[in-house]
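Q: Got one fold?
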Amino acid sequence: MSDSRPIPSAEAAPAPVPYPLSRGLLEAVLADRTNDRFVCELIWPRLGYEQNGEGLWCAGPDTGESWRESFPIEPQFIAERPPSVALTRSIPKQHKQLLKEQLGFGGYRIGELYPRRTRRATAVNWLLAHLAERGEPLPEAGPLPELREQPADPVAGHPGDLPIS
């Protein structure tokens, strides 16, 4: 079954500038202080996805073939298991421990283990690996979006977050 939504051409829009990463930002993601879509928007442009005129992120010319074939439209890394698994598998082995090594993140406690949060940890580890693969440092500070309180129901997430599957 194919998706009938149009995929933009290379001339459709300039490549989006990814939101700058910093230790503070990644710690906010791990602390569940941003909505799930923002987490995805940190990753999509770094995978080569581009926004179309309708607010969707579509695989672009710089998107790797396996991502383009498996997820032609914005993979939901937090809400859906298959994109999260693909993201985990795409982290090179030598970078699997960057959460511990760079952020000192020891994991969530038993009462905090929810798919949304473990998928956030995967997203942050992928972002750290992305920087490492390019030889880019992780700045201590940088711009932050408006941070939210942790959701009252960590399973449901923030208002507007997609349900977890």
